[in-house]
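Here is a protein:
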Amino acid sequence: MARLIYSMITSLDGYAEATAGGLGRGADDEEVHTFVNDLFRPVGTYLYGRRMYETMVYWETAHTVPDQPPHILQYARDWQAAEKVVYSTTLESVSSARTSIERTFDPSAIRALKTAAQADLTVDGPTLAAQAIAADLVDDYHLFITTTAVGGGKRFFPDGVRLDLDLVTTRTFASGLIHAHYRTR
């Protein structure tokens, strides 16, 4: 059975989206990006909400931008090779290959997808992930924690859900960013 992974860059105080401004430094350097490439290369399907998809669709054409470094080109190739499912009631069409739209998030459909999949899946974006977490679908959590506390926004973990997790690995990058991998018990 494939695993469902939730991963986001988060602020030091636990926000995946800041109310104002970015989440802080550390996430955009080559060392971190190469680590992310290697970590998520085996993923076969990305589950996105509309807003996250609109951010990530950049990777459909990133390889056409002149003078891209190798780690960016590699991520674009990996992203293009994966299936993408966008959960949206408003999105009319998609602008990337291997992408479909679902109008509702159905936990039983995700369970079936996990059972049938040959490769792991990710759920991306705090709003969609909150639904997957509440339905007890997420197997692994990868937090990329910046050095900045932002004071508010959308939390990485949804309110009202208790999780008991085991720490699998950690890594600290030269930028100060920390990767923490947790697995559900």
